Protein backbone atom coordinates (compact mmCIF):
# COMPACT_ATOMS: atom_id res chain seq x y z
CA UNK A 1 0.00 0.00 0.00
CA UNK A 2 1.45 3.41 -0.86
CA UNK A 3 1.34 5.86 2.01
CA UNK A 4 1.03 8.78 -0.34
CA UNK A 5 -0.51 9.35 -3.72
CA UNK A 6 1.82 10.99 -6.23
CA UNK A 7 -0.74 11.22 -9.01
CA UNK A 8 -0.82 14.80 -10.26
CA UNK A 9 -3.98 16.80 -9.67
CA UNK A 10 -5.09 16.86 -13.30
CA UNK A 11 -4.30 13.16 -13.85
CA UNK A 12 -6.44 11.69 -16.63
CA UNK A 13 -8.16 8.71 -15.00
CA UNK A 14 -10.19 6.94 -17.62
CA UNK A 15 -11.28 3.96 -19.64
CA UNK A 16 -10.45 2.81 -23.18
CA UNK A 17 -12.15 0.88 -25.95
CA UNK A 18 -11.90 0.56 -29.72
CA UNK A 19 -14.78 1.19 -32.12
CA UNK A 20 -14.72 -2.25 -33.73
CA UNK A 21 -14.80 -4.06 -30.40
CA UNK A 22 -17.76 -2.11 -29.06
CA UNK A 23 -19.89 -0.18 -31.54
CA UNK A 24 -21.51 -2.88 -33.64
CA UNK A 25 -23.81 -1.26 -36.27
CA UNK A 26 -21.18 -2.45 -38.74
CA UNK A 27 -23.15 -1.44 -41.84
CA UNK A 28 -25.47 1.22 -40.48
CA UNK A 29 -25.74 4.85 -41.57
CA UNK A 30 -23.43 4.40 -44.51
CA UNK A 31 -20.54 2.65 -42.77
CA UNK A 32 -18.42 0.52 -45.07
CA UNK A 33 -16.84 -2.78 -44.06
CA UNK A 34 -13.56 -2.69 -42.18
CA UNK A 35 -11.10 -5.58 -41.92
CA UNK A 36 -12.39 -6.21 -38.42
CA UNK A 37 -15.83 -6.97 -39.94
CA UNK A 38 -14.58 -9.90 -41.99
CA UNK A 39 -12.32 -11.63 -39.48
CA UNK A 40 -13.68 -14.42 -37.29
CA UNK A 41 -12.45 -15.43 -33.84
CA UNK A 42 -10.50 -12.31 -33.03
CA UNK A 43 -9.12 -9.59 -35.26
CA UNK A 44 -5.66 -10.29 -33.96
CA UNK A 45 -5.27 -13.99 -34.55
CA UNK A 46 -8.47 -15.09 -36.26
CA UNK A 47 -9.45 -16.08 -39.78
CA UNK A 48 -9.62 -13.38 -42.44
CA UNK A 49 -12.53 -14.19 -44.77
CA UNK A 50 -11.91 -11.22 -47.06
CA UNK A 51 -15.67 -10.61 -47.27
CA UNK A 52 -18.73 -11.26 -45.17
CA UNK A 53 -19.71 -14.90 -45.66
CA UNK A 54 -23.28 -16.00 -44.89
CA UNK A 55 -23.53 -18.21 -41.84
CA UNK A 56 -20.24 -17.05 -40.32
CA UNK A 57 -20.26 -15.22 -37.01
CA UNK A 58 -18.42 -11.89 -36.89
CA UNK A 59 -18.28 -10.46 -33.39
CA UNK A 60 -17.81 -6.86 -34.56
CA UNK A 61 -21.17 -6.74 -36.36
CA UNK A 62 -23.09 -6.18 -33.18
CA UNK A 63 -20.35 -6.19 -30.50
CA UNK A 64 -21.96 -4.57 -27.44
CA UNK A 65 -24.00 -2.23 -29.64
CA UNK A 66 -22.29 0.82 -28.17
CA UNK A 67 -23.51 2.67 -31.27
CA UNK A 68 -27.02 2.66 -29.83
CA UNK A 69 -26.17 2.44 -26.12
CA UNK A 70 -23.49 5.10 -25.78
CA UNK A 71 -25.64 7.54 -23.81
CA UNK A 72 -26.47 4.96 -21.18
CA UNK A 73 -22.83 3.82 -21.09
CA UNK A 74 -21.43 7.32 -20.80
CA UNK A 75 -23.82 8.00 -17.92
CA UNK A 76 -22.25 5.04 -16.13
CA UNK A 77 -18.72 6.25 -16.95
CA UNK A 78 -19.64 9.63 -15.51
CA UNK A 79 -21.00 8.00 -12.38
CA UNK A 80 -17.71 6.13 -11.99
CA UNK A 81 -16.00 9.52 -12.22
CA UNK A 82 -13.97 8.98 -15.40
CA UNK A 83 -12.04 12.08 -16.41
CA UNK A 84 -11.30 10.81 -19.90
CA UNK A 85 -12.48 8.16 -22.31
CA UNK A 86 -10.39 6.68 -25.08
CA UNK A 87 -12.07 5.27 -28.15
CA UNK A 88 -11.31 5.14 -31.84
CA UNK A 89 -13.12 6.59 -34.79
CA UNK A 90 -14.11 3.78 -37.15
CA UNK A 91 -12.38 4.97 -40.31
CA UNK A 92 -14.97 3.29 -42.57
CA UNK A 93 -17.82 5.21 -40.91
CA UNK A 94 -16.22 8.39 -42.22
CA UNK A 95 -14.80 7.09 -45.50
CA UNK A 96 -16.73 3.87 -46.23
CA UNK A 97 -14.28 2.68 -48.87
CA UNK A 98 -11.25 4.51 -47.56
CA UNK A 99 -10.62 6.15 -50.94
CA UNK A 100 -13.87 8.16 -51.23
CA UNK A 101 -13.63 11.82 -52.21
CA UNK A 102 -16.27 12.96 -49.72
CA UNK A 103 -16.86 11.87 -46.13
CA UNK A 104 -20.05 10.21 -44.95
CA UNK A 105 -21.98 12.91 -43.06
CA UNK A 106 -23.91 10.41 -40.95
CA UNK A 107 -20.71 8.87 -39.69
CA UNK A 108 -19.37 12.31 -38.76
CA UNK A 109 -22.62 13.10 -36.96
CA UNK A 110 -22.36 9.99 -34.83
CA UNK A 111 -19.01 11.08 -33.40
CA UNK A 112 -20.30 14.63 -32.93
CA UNK A 113 -23.02 13.23 -30.71
CA UNK A 114 -20.67 10.85 -28.93
CA UNK A 115 -18.12 13.57 -28.14
CA UNK A 116 -20.87 16.01 -27.10
CA UNK A 117 -22.23 13.42 -24.70
CA UNK A 118 -18.79 12.88 -23.19
CA UNK A 119 -18.12 16.59 -22.82
CA UNK A 120 -21.54 17.17 -21.31
CA UNK A 121 -20.56 14.65 -18.67
CA UNK A 122 -17.20 16.26 -18.02
CA UNK A 123 -15.25 13.48 -19.77
CA UNK A 124 -12.35 14.35 -22.08
CA UNK A 125 -12.31 12.31 -25.31
CA UNK A 126 -8.98 10.69 -26.21
CA UNK A 127 -9.16 9.52 -29.81
CA UNK A 128 -7.29 6.85 -31.74
CA UNK A 129 -7.41 7.56 -35.45
CA UNK A 130 -6.78 3.97 -36.55
CA UNK A 131 -7.29 0.98 -34.27
CA UNK A 132 -7.15 -2.35 -36.17
CA UNK A 133 -10.14 -1.33 -38.35
CA UNK A 134 -8.81 -0.19 -41.73
CA UNK A 135 -11.52 0.08 -44.41
CA UNK A 136 -11.58 -3.31 -46.15
CA UNK A 137 -11.31 -1.76 -49.60
CA UNK A 138 -7.90 -0.36 -48.71
CA UNK A 139 -6.69 -3.93 -48.22
CA UNK A 140 -8.40 -5.64 -51.14
CA UNK A 141 -7.84 -2.89 -53.69
CA UNK A 142 -4.56 -1.37 -52.54
CA UNK A 143 -2.82 -4.00 -50.41
CA UNK A 144 -2.89 -2.02 -47.17
CA UNK A 145 -0.04 0.12 -45.87
CA UNK A 146 2.55 -1.36 -48.23
CA UNK A 147 0.95 0.95 -50.80
CA UNK A 148 2.09 4.58 -50.61
CA UNK A 149 -1.38 5.75 -51.67
CA UNK A 150 -2.62 5.02 -48.17
CA UNK A 151 -0.75 8.08 -46.94
CA UNK A 152 -3.11 10.31 -48.96
CA UNK A 153 -6.23 8.47 -47.82
CA UNK A 154 -5.16 8.67 -44.18
CA UNK A 155 -4.27 12.33 -44.57
CA UNK A 156 -7.69 13.15 -46.02
CA UNK A 157 -9.37 11.23 -43.20
CA UNK A 158 -7.23 12.87 -40.52
CA UNK A 159 -7.80 16.40 -41.82
CA UNK A 160 -11.55 15.74 -42.04
CA UNK A 161 -11.83 14.64 -38.43
CA UNK A 162 -9.42 17.28 -37.08
CA UNK A 163 -11.44 20.04 -38.70
CA UNK A 164 -14.75 18.61 -37.65
CA UNK A 165 -13.83 17.88 -34.02
CA UNK A 166 -11.26 20.59 -33.33
CA UNK A 167 -13.37 22.11 -30.57
CA UNK A 168 -14.20 18.77 -29.01
CA UNK A 169 -11.04 16.68 -29.07
CA UNK A 170 -7.63 17.71 -27.78
CA UNK A 171 -5.90 14.32 -27.31
CA UNK A 172 -5.23 12.16 -30.37
CA UNK A 173 -3.25 9.02 -31.18
CA UNK A 174 -2.18 8.21 -34.71
CA UNK A 175 -2.14 4.36 -34.82
CA UNK A 176 -2.91 1.76 -32.21
CA UNK A 177 -0.01 -0.51 -31.21
CA UNK A 178 1.94 0.33 -34.32
CA UNK A 179 4.84 -1.95 -33.37
CA UNK A 180 2.48 -4.89 -33.95
CA UNK A 181 3.21 -4.55 -37.67
CA UNK A 182 5.71 -7.31 -36.99
CA UNK A 183 3.56 -9.70 -35.03
CA UNK A 184 0.06 -9.09 -36.41
CA UNK A 185 0.66 -7.37 -39.77
CA UNK A 186 -2.91 -7.76 -41.01
CA UNK A 187 -4.75 -6.28 -38.03
CA UNK A 188 -2.19 -3.55 -37.36
CA UNK A 189 -1.13 -2.66 -40.90
CA UNK A 190 -3.58 -4.24 -43.26
CA UNK A 191 -0.63 -6.15 -44.67
CA UNK A 192 -1.50 -9.53 -46.11
CA UNK A 193 1.77 -11.38 -46.00
CA UNK A 194 1.94 -13.36 -49.27
CA UNK A 195 5.48 -14.49 -49.02
CA UNK A 196 7.69 -15.10 -45.99
CA UNK A 197 10.72 -14.05 -48.07
CA UNK A 198 9.48 -10.52 -48.59
CA UNK A 199 7.72 -10.20 -45.24
CA UNK A 200 10.26 -7.88 -43.64
CA UNK A 201 10.54 -5.78 -46.79
CA UNK A 202 6.75 -5.29 -46.71
CA UNK A 203 6.68 -4.51 -43.02
CA UNK A 204 9.44 -1.89 -43.16
CA UNK A 205 8.03 -0.32 -46.33
CA UNK A 206 4.58 -0.11 -44.73
CA UNK A 207 6.16 1.27 -41.56
CA UNK A 208 7.77 4.06 -43.56
CA UNK A 209 4.41 4.98 -45.09
CA UNK A 210 2.88 5.06 -41.65
CA UNK A 211 5.64 7.34 -40.36
CA UNK A 212 5.02 9.78 -43.22
CA UNK A 213 1.26 9.62 -42.63
CA UNK A 214 1.73 10.17 -38.89
CA UNK A 215 3.98 13.17 -39.55
CA UNK A 216 1.46 14.69 -41.96
CA UNK A 217 -1.31 14.18 -39.43
CA UNK A 218 0.73 15.80 -36.66
CA UNK A 219 1.45 18.77 -38.93
CA UNK A 220 -2.21 19.29 -39.87
CA UNK A 221 -3.36 18.88 -36.28
CA UNK A 222 -1.07 21.66 -35.08
CA UNK A 223 -2.29 23.94 -37.85
CA UNK A 224 -5.92 23.22 -37.08
CA UNK A 225 -5.64 23.24 -33.29
CA UNK A 226 -2.26 24.41 -31.99
CA UNK A 227 -2.75 23.23 -28.39
CA UNK A 228 -3.83 19.71 -29.39
CA UNK A 229 -1.69 16.76 -28.36
CA UNK A 230 -0.69 14.06 -30.84
CA UNK A 231 0.47 10.77 -29.40
CA UNK A 232 2.11 7.63 -30.70
CA UNK A 233 0.71 4.36 -29.35
CA UNK A 234 2.68 1.14 -28.93
CA UNK A 235 2.28 -2.15 -27.16
CA UNK A 236 5.16 -1.98 -24.71
CA UNK A 237 4.89 -4.85 -22.31
CA UNK A 238 8.53 -5.56 -21.40
CA UNK A 239 10.74 -8.40 -22.56
CA UNK A 240 12.98 -10.02 -19.98
CA UNK A 241 15.88 -12.31 -20.85
CA UNK A 242 14.99 -15.82 -19.71
CA UNK A 243 18.47 -16.43 -18.32
CA UNK A 244 21.55 -14.32 -17.73
CA UNK A 245 23.23 -15.97 -20.70
CA UNK A 246 24.60 -12.97 -22.61
CA UNK A 247 23.05 -14.23 -25.84
CA UNK A 248 19.58 -14.21 -24.29
CA UNK A 249 20.22 -10.81 -22.80
CA UNK A 250 21.36 -9.34 -26.10
CA UNK A 251 18.66 -10.95 -28.20
CA UNK A 252 16.01 -9.69 -25.76
CA UNK A 253 17.48 -6.22 -26.18
CA UNK A 254 17.28 -6.51 -29.96
CA UNK A 255 13.72 -7.69 -29.71
CA UNK A 256 12.83 -4.72 -27.54
CA UNK A 257 14.41 -2.42 -30.07
CA UNK A 258 12.23 -3.92 -32.80
CA UNK A 259 9.32 -2.30 -30.96
CA UNK A 260 11.09 0.84 -29.82
CA UNK A 261 12.05 1.45 -33.46
CA UNK A 262 8.54 2.90 -33.90
CA UNK A 263 8.67 5.28 -30.97
CA UNK A 264 12.29 6.17 -31.82
CA UNK A 265 11.22 7.41 -35.25
CA UNK A 266 8.02 9.13 -34.16
CA UNK A 267 9.49 10.78 -31.07
CA UNK A 268 13.05 11.58 -32.17
CA UNK A 269 12.10 12.27 -35.76
CA UNK A 270 14.93 10.24 -37.28
CA UNK A 271 15.54 6.63 -38.18
CA UNK A 272 17.77 5.07 -35.50
CA UNK A 273 21.27 4.06 -36.58
CA UNK A 274 20.61 0.39 -35.70
CA UNK A 275 18.05 0.20 -38.54
CA UNK A 276 20.75 0.21 -41.20
CA UNK A 277 22.28 -3.09 -40.17
CA UNK A 278 18.86 -4.79 -39.94
CA UNK A 279 17.94 -3.54 -43.39
CA UNK A 280 21.30 -4.51 -44.90
CA UNK A 281 21.26 -7.99 -43.46
CA UNK A 282 17.73 -8.67 -44.66
CA UNK A 283 18.23 -6.97 -48.05
CA UNK A 284 15.55 -4.46 -47.27
CA UNK A 285 15.27 -1.48 -49.52
CA UNK A 286 12.79 1.08 -48.20
CA UNK A 287 11.54 3.40 -50.92
CA UNK A 288 11.32 6.99 -49.72
CA UNK A 289 10.17 10.09 -51.55
CA UNK A 290 11.92 13.45 -51.48
CA UNK A 291 10.96 15.35 -48.38
CA UNK A 292 9.81 12.31 -46.36
CA UNK A 293 12.67 12.45 -43.90
CA UNK A 294 12.30 16.21 -43.35
CA UNK A 295 8.61 15.78 -42.74
CA UNK A 296 9.23 13.04 -40.19
CA UNK A 297 11.91 15.14 -38.54
CA UNK A 298 9.74 18.23 -38.24
CA UNK A 299 6.52 16.62 -37.04
CA UNK A 300 7.15 14.41 -34.06
CA UNK A 301 4.59 13.37 -31.46
CA UNK A 302 3.91 15.12 -28.16
CA UNK A 303 3.43 12.11 -25.93
CA UNK A 304 3.85 8.36 -25.91
CA UNK A 305 0.74 6.30 -25.26
CA UNK A 306 1.20 2.61 -24.65
CA UNK A 307 -0.57 -0.54 -23.59
CA UNK A 308 0.71 -2.69 -20.77
CA UNK A 309 -0.80 -6.02 -19.78
CA UNK A 310 2.04 -8.35 -18.86
CA UNK A 311 5.68 -9.14 -19.36
CA UNK A 312 7.27 -11.76 -21.58
CA UNK A 313 10.54 -13.66 -21.28
CA UNK A 314 12.79 -14.48 -24.17
CA UNK A 315 15.51 -17.04 -24.71
CA UNK A 316 18.04 -16.77 -27.50
CA UNK A 317 16.98 -18.59 -30.64
CA UNK A 318 13.34 -19.11 -29.75
CA UNK A 319 10.62 -18.42 -32.25
CA UNK A 320 8.83 -15.16 -31.65
CA UNK A 321 5.08 -15.39 -31.89
CA UNK A 322 2.77 -12.45 -31.96
CA UNK A 323 0.01 -11.71 -29.55
CA UNK A 324 -1.57 -8.66 -28.06
CA UNK A 325 0.17 -7.06 -25.17
CA UNK A 326 3.59 -8.39 -26.08
CA UNK A 327 5.00 -11.67 -27.22
CA UNK A 328 4.55 -15.19 -26.01
CA UNK A 329 7.85 -16.23 -24.58
CA UNK A 330 9.29 -18.69 -22.07
CA UNK A 331 7.40 -19.39 -18.92
CA UNK A 332 8.30 -16.97 -16.13
CA UNK A 333 8.20 -19.06 -12.94
CA UNK A 334 7.95 -16.00 -10.71
CA UNK A 335 4.63 -14.76 -12.04
CA UNK A 336 1.03 -15.90 -11.74
CA UNK A 337 -1.09 -15.97 -14.88
CA UNK A 338 -4.60 -15.05 -15.92
CA UNK A 339 -6.95 -17.76 -17.24
CA UNK A 340 -5.78 -16.73 -20.70
CA UNK A 341 -2.17 -17.40 -19.76
CA UNK A 342 -1.01 -13.77 -19.48
CA UNK A 343 1.64 -13.35 -16.76
CA UNK A 344 0.67 -10.76 -14.15
CA UNK A 345 3.56 -8.39 -13.54
CA UNK A 346 2.76 -5.08 -11.82
CA UNK A 347 6.40 -4.16 -11.18
CA UNK A 348 6.97 -4.53 -14.92
CA UNK A 349 4.81 -1.44 -15.39
CA UNK A 350 7.10 0.63 -13.19
CA UNK A 351 10.07 -0.81 -15.07
CA UNK A 352 8.66 0.14 -18.47
CA UNK A 353 7.68 3.65 -17.38
CA UNK A 354 11.23 4.25 -16.20
CA UNK A 355 12.74 2.70 -19.32
CA UNK A 356 10.62 4.86 -21.61
CA UNK A 357 10.95 8.07 -19.68
CA UNK A 358 14.74 7.66 -19.49
CA UNK A 359 14.83 7.14 -23.25
CA UNK A 360 12.48 9.89 -24.40
CA UNK A 361 11.72 12.35 -21.61
CA UNK A 362 8.29 13.16 -23.01
CA UNK A 363 4.93 12.61 -21.25
CA UNK A 364 3.73 9.01 -21.03
CA UNK A 365 0.11 7.93 -21.09
CA UNK A 366 -0.88 4.38 -20.11
CA UNK A 367 -3.77 4.02 -22.53
CA UNK A 368 -4.47 0.34 -21.94
CA UNK A 369 -4.11 -1.86 -18.90
CA UNK A 370 -6.53 -4.35 -17.50
CA UNK A 371 -7.48 -7.84 -16.52
CA UNK A 372 -9.26 -10.16 -18.96
CA UNK A 373 -11.12 -12.87 -17.07
CA UNK A 374 -14.39 -14.71 -16.67
CA UNK A 375 -17.14 -13.27 -14.49
CA UNK A 376 -20.09 -14.92 -12.83
CA UNK A 377 -23.09 -13.57 -10.97
CA UNK A 378 -23.25 -14.85 -7.38
CA UNK A 379 -26.48 -15.93 -5.69
CA UNK A 380 -27.29 -12.32 -4.84
CA UNK A 381 -27.00 -11.34 -8.47
CA UNK A 382 -23.67 -9.55 -8.02
CA UNK A 383 -20.31 -9.86 -9.72
CA UNK A 384 -17.56 -9.78 -7.14
CA UNK A 385 -14.49 -9.36 -9.34
CA UNK A 386 -11.80 -9.26 -6.68
CA UNK A 387 -9.19 -10.71 -9.01
CA UNK A 388 -9.64 -7.79 -11.38
CA UNK A 389 -9.53 -5.26 -8.55
CA UNK A 390 -6.39 -6.89 -7.26
CA UNK A 391 -4.73 -6.70 -10.67
CA UNK A 392 -5.55 -3.03 -11.23
CA UNK A 393 -4.67 -2.07 -7.69
CA UNK A 394 -1.22 -3.63 -7.89
CA UNK A 395 -0.55 -1.96 -11.24
CA UNK A 396 -1.69 1.44 -10.01
CA UNK A 397 0.49 1.13 -6.95
CA UNK A 398 3.47 0.58 -9.25
CA UNK A 399 2.38 3.48 -11.42
CA UNK A 400 2.40 5.67 -8.35
CA UNK A 401 5.95 4.49 -7.71
CA UNK A 402 6.93 5.32 -11.28
CA UNK A 403 5.63 8.86 -10.82
CA UNK A 404 7.63 9.05 -7.61
CA UNK A 405 10.66 7.87 -9.61
CA UNK A 406 10.27 11.03 -11.67
CA UNK A 407 8.34 9.78 -14.71
CA UNK A 408 5.91 12.26 -16.23
CA UNK A 409 2.70 10.22 -16.53
CA UNK A 410 -0.36 12.12 -17.70
CA UNK A 411 -3.05 9.47 -17.47
CA UNK A 412 -4.25 5.92 -17.15
CA UNK A 413 -7.14 4.38 -19.06
CA UNK A 414 -8.52 1.03 -17.87
CA UNK A 415 -8.88 -1.22 -20.89
CA UNK A 416 -12.51 -2.12 -21.47
CA UNK A 417 -14.29 -0.23 -18.67
CA UNK A 418 -17.34 -1.95 -20.09
CA UNK A 419 -17.08 -5.55 -21.37
CA UNK A 420 -16.27 -5.63 -25.08
CA UNK A 421 -15.24 -8.18 -27.70
CA UNK A 422 -11.72 -9.52 -27.23
CA UNK A 423 -9.32 -8.53 -30.00
CA UNK A 424 -7.25 -11.64 -29.46
CA UNK A 425 -9.96 -14.27 -29.58
CA UNK A 426 -13.24 -12.58 -30.54
CA UNK A 427 -14.79 -13.80 -27.30
CA UNK A 428 -17.15 -11.96 -24.98
CA UNK A 429 -16.31 -14.12 -22.02
CA UNK A 430 -12.82 -12.63 -21.73
CA UNK A 431 -14.09 -9.63 -19.82
CA UNK A 432 -12.26 -6.51 -18.73
CA UNK A 433 -15.05 -4.24 -17.57
CA UNK A 434 -16.20 -2.75 -14.33
CA UNK A 435 -19.52 -2.78 -16.16
CA UNK A 436 -20.87 -6.15 -17.24
CA UNK A 437 -22.67 -6.67 -20.56
CA UNK A 438 -25.07 -9.56 -20.90
CA UNK A 439 -23.79 -11.25 -24.03
CA UNK A 440 -22.03 -14.55 -24.61
CA UNK A 441 -19.51 -15.96 -27.06
CA UNK A 442 -22.24 -17.02 -29.49
CA UNK A 443 -23.67 -13.53 -29.61
CA UNK A 444 -26.64 -14.28 -27.37
CA UNK A 445 -27.78 -12.04 -24.52
CA UNK A 446 -29.92 -9.05 -23.67
CA UNK A 447 -27.03 -6.53 -23.81
CA UNK A 448 -28.09 -5.35 -20.36
CA UNK A 449 -25.43 -3.40 -18.50
CA UNK A 450 -24.74 -3.95 -14.78
CA UNK A 451 -22.07 -2.78 -12.38
CA UNK A 452 -19.47 -5.11 -10.95
CA UNK A 453 -17.77 -4.68 -7.58
CA UNK A 454 -14.82 -3.02 -9.35
CA UNK A 455 -17.10 -0.16 -10.41
CA UNK A 456 -17.24 1.31 -6.94
CA UNK A 457 -13.66 0.44 -6.25
CA UNK A 458 -12.40 2.45 -9.25
CA UNK A 459 -14.83 5.26 -8.45
CA UNK A 460 -13.14 5.58 -5.08
CA UNK A 461 -9.64 5.52 -6.58
CA UNK A 462 -10.54 8.36 -8.93
CA UNK A 463 -12.36 10.34 -6.28
CA UNK A 464 -9.35 10.24 -3.96
CA UNK A 465 -6.87 10.68 -6.83
CA UNK A 466 -5.19 7.41 -5.93
CA UNK A 467 -5.08 7.90 -2.19
CA UNK A 468 -7.50 4.99 -1.59
CA UNK A 469 -5.26 2.45 -3.33
C1 LIG B 1 -4.44 -4.55 -27.18
C2 LIG B 1 -5.36 -3.99 -28.21
O1 LIG B 1 -3.44 -5.21 -27.86
O2 LIG B 1 -4.91 -5.51 -26.30
C3 LIG B 1 -6.84 -4.09 -27.86
O3 LIG B 1 -5.03 -2.65 -28.50
C4 LIG B 1 -7.11 -5.42 -27.19
O4 LIG B 1 -7.59 -3.87 -29.01
C5 LIG B 1 -6.27 -5.52 -25.92
O5 LIG B 1 -8.46 -5.67 -26.92
C6 LIG B 1 -6.54 -6.74 -25.06
O6 LIG B 1 -6.40 -7.91 -25.80
P1 LIG B 1 -7.55 -8.99 -25.85
O7 LIG B 1 -7.06 -10.01 -26.80
O8 LIG B 1 -7.66 -9.52 -24.47
O9 LIG B 1 -8.79 -8.30 -26.29
Protein traits:
single chain; 469 residues; alpha/beta; TIM Barrel; eight-stranded parallel β-barrel; two-stranded antiparallel ribbon; 14 helices; 37% helix; 14% strand; globular; binds 6-O-phosphono-beta-D-glucopyranose
Describe the structure.
With about 475 residues, the protein is of the alpha/beta class. The chain has a single domain (about 10-465), classed as TIM Barrel (Alpha-Beta Barrel). It has helices spanning about 20, 65-80, 90-95, 105-120, 135-140, 150-165, 185-190, 200-225, 245-270, 275-280, 290-300, 345-360, 385-405, 455-465, and strands at about 10-15, 40, 45-50, 85-90, 125-130, 170-175, 230-235, 240, 305, 310-315, 320-325, 325-330, 365-370, 410-415, 435, 450. It has an eight-stranded parallel beta barrel, surrounded by five helices. Strands 2-3 form a two-stranded antiparallel ribbon. Strands 8-10 form a two-stranded parallel sheet. Helix 6 (about 150-165) runs parallel beside helix 8, helix 8 packs across helix 11 and helix 12 (about 345-360) packs parallel to helix 13. The structure holds 6-O-phosphono-beta-D-glucopyranose (BG6). It holds the Pfam family Glyco_hydro_1. Belongs to the glycosyl hydrolase 1 family. Keywords: Glycosidase, Hydrolase.
